Amino acid sequence: MHELGPAITQALHLLLSGDTVLWSIIGVSFSVSLRAIAIATPLALAAAFVLAYLRFPGRRILVTTVNTLMAVPAVVVGLTCYLVLSSNGPAGGLHLLFTQWAMIIGQIVLCLPLLVAMAHSALQSGDQRAWETALTLGASRLRAMRTVMYEVRFGLLAAIIAAFGRIIAEVGCSMMVGGNILHHTRNIPTAIALETAKGEFAQGIALGGVLLAFALLLNLALGYAQGSGRVIP
Amino acid sequence: MNQDASAPLVELAGVHLARGGRRVLDIDHLAVRRGQVLSLSGANGSGKTSLLKLMAGLLIADGGTLRCLGTSMRARAAARFCRGRHVYLHQVPYLFDGTVEDNVAYGLKLRGRDPAQRRVEIRDALAWAELDHLLDRPARQLSGGEQQRVALVRARILAPTLLLLDEITANMDRDSRRRTYAMVEDLRQCGSSVVFASHDAEALAALGDTALVLAAGRLGAARPAPAAIIRLAGRAARPDTR
């Protein structure tokens, strides 16, 4: 049985001493996932809006497909991306496999269905009158879309946070298409998996603590934003 | 586009609209002229809201002829033309998340009004509705009647050529109704045309020049509304001082 106390002490030491390997892993994680969410968010919001506000044939099938894609495991996304990006795959010529961009592509594919589904749900639960009011006051469709999104911004923010939570913590896809190369494509989840397999728990605990602290910060920020947006008599 | 100033603001001929596979509107002919106040009554589900939204450009007709200021337009082009010029007010108004000022400023910002001028206009408009003391209040904190009046101010400040009011006095108390009637009358004096749908006999009697009745999506023959008869009678009884 491993002793938890010394492992936690060592984890704290790693964090506070500015261990370069540890902070490089944290840097890769946030750099990759932030870029992925930054690219995925506008695409997902536009898609969610189209699904929520426009009527066209096949819309329901698309909504069902998006909801189904949410359940696809990260390793399956990783395998698909691997096959597409490997030298014999259709995008092999781009030489992206085992790079951060491969991880970004994988994470975009992973978080898009979740983002679209949650944003779609937030937009659908919003008030249709917001859209009509914006239009009747003279807003273009694009401006009215911005207004509606602002009105349901907390739901959309929750969707973005949930999607970010999914990709920063996923291991299967990053491991397959990133290759877990130190200082390059090793992120928090792949590092935890590797170190645990080696029986080195201190780094895993330190990295897990960073993830937990970050999740707490995000949720506090969301709660604060919701609180300041609420009208208190 | 050539626009005829004397032509009706909007004219519908043989216009029909279906929703959910059911025909909800079938309008043989309807013309709304400048300065006219039309009252629209009819049972629930008779198509009042659909007709108002059609004239606001929020719904697009499936067929028929639409003329805006005398120019025939395709349904989509007519809808684009009407949006922003014809302002529609919901039965329960939607106020954006923000202060009363933010709400009233919305349409002015879209029209590129500079901030200083905007603030003056907003203060004047709120004073007109006796709501200037609510300028900085969160809009959604107001009572139902106040919210409806803010929505009316938000529409009025844009000087719409046509105002489409959907049972806006339905949930108001007597005092709010009285204020709202006065505001609508004032809008007419300022040159806006108004079409208002209502079940409320008091509203119908107080406001309209011409009464329209909608049944199963079809319009009955237009007739002078009680308010117009009272106004005409008042004018006839008044001695000519010229």
Observed structural traits:
heterodimer; A: 233 residues; MetI-like fold; 11 helices; 77% helix; B: alpha/beta; Rossmann fold; seven-stranded mixed beta sheet; four-stranded antiparallel beta sheet; 8 helices
Q: Any guess at the CATH architecture of chain A?
A: Orthogonal Bundle
Number of domains of chain A: 1
Provide a count of the helices of chain A. Answer: 11
Shape of chain B: globular
Can you describe what's shown?
Chain A is mainly alpha-helical and 233 residues long. Chain A has a single domain (18-186), classed as Orthogonal Bundle (MetI-like fold). Helix content of chain A is 77%, strand content 0%. Chain A contains eleven helices and no strands. Chain A has helices at 4-16, 20-53, 59-69, 74-85, 100-125, 128-136, 141-151, 153-168, 172-178, 188-198, 201-229. By secondary structure, chain B is α/β, with parallel strands linked by helices. Chain B has one domain: Rossmann fold (3-Layer(aba) Sandwich), CATH 3.40.50. Classes of the chains: A mainly alpha (233), B alpha/beta (242).
Summarize the structure.
The complex is a heterodimer of chains A (233) and B (242). Chain A is an all-alpha fold.
